[in-house]
Every structure is written in C-alpha cells, then in structure tokens.
Amino acid sequence: MEKIKRRFDDIDFENTGEIDYDEFLEDVGEPRSPFVDAVFSLVDINGNGLLDFSEYVRIFCIYCTYSKEEILQFVYNCFDADGSGTIDEEEFQLLAVTVNKASPMFPGNFQQALEEFDTNGDGLIDIDEFRILDRRYPMVLFPAFRLQDKLQKGSLSTSRWRDILRCRELRRVYNEYRKQHAGQMPPISMKSKLLTKFCFCWFVHPHRWYL
To answer: In sequence order, which residues have a C-beta less than 8 Å from that of residue 30 and are 6 or more positions away?
Structure first.
C-alpha cells in the first residue's frame, strides 16, 4: 500500500487527492480507449473521470487479479451492450474496433469473421464461441491482457502480483477443503510434520500463512 501510495502521490503532484484517467494511463504507458474507460467504470461509480486513492487502489486490486478467463468474461460482458448473454454483429464490430483501436487482427470483413466464429449458425456469438475467437486470433484481444501486464508492472511488479494470485488460489483450495471436511485443515506431509516438531525455530508450518 505504501508503494502504491507513493506512486499515486507522484502522479498527483498538485496534491488535489485525485487524478484523471489520462494521468493514470500516461503513468502506466497505456493509450486511452473506450475499453479502458470500461475498466475505470468498475471503480469510478459517479463517472466524474477522476480517481481518488481508494479508487486508484481498487483498479489494481480488481484488474490485476483477474485470471485469463475472467478477463475474457469481462471483455465479453463489456460489449454485450443489451445484456442478452450473446454478442450480435453490431456489438462484435464495436468490440473488435474498440479493443484493438480500429485494427482487428482477423482476415476479411466483420460479417465473415462473425460467421467464422458463430459455430452454431444463430448469427450471435456466445461465450464459448468467444473463447474460440481468442484461441484462433489472440491478437484481437491482446490489448486487454496487455493492460493487465502494464497495471501489474505499474504498481507492485508482475512477480508480486503472481505471488498474490497464487496465495488467493491456495486460500480458495483451503476454504473448499475445510467446507468439505468439517473445518479441518488439509493434511501435511510427514516431512513437514517432522520439521515442525524438531526444527520449529526455523521451519515455517505450511498452514501458518493461512491461519
């Protein structure tokens, strides 16, 4: 938090307690786009185009911790404008142009692309077909993943966020195990048991981080 606060204060050199979107993006080296604005809308509830420190922190805490699947789902939801659960041709065209700044990375026109990904022929793209799009033409959605990379590097570092995500996943696994085993902790290896008993002065118990 101290590291992120120092960075925020460097951007907010006038000490107003707020920064605007463009200042934020200039700091992390990411261009402004409607897609990026959608990311800001996650935290800028009043839509005034300014981020105070708590909103600034939330941007990182939300987008930096998304898995690849969660980023795909987020992009999909952003452009499912009518909330139908599918993307039509108009929404698909807007997605491709917006995310890649008018440079879609697939051949032909939008109608041909839509037909290529619309495997069930209903004229719409569902989330499974959207995943096929990403696998076949990863550069179409690359800016969404690049944004996460720049946000991670522009706050705590990629390796630190990787550690945070690893701990989050471990905590999920532990919580799931405890739900299914009347609150008991997962078993530890015999080696860990021996080290805990005889080398407690330097060995850290595997469950200590969780407790």
So the answer is: 36, 146, 147, 150, 151
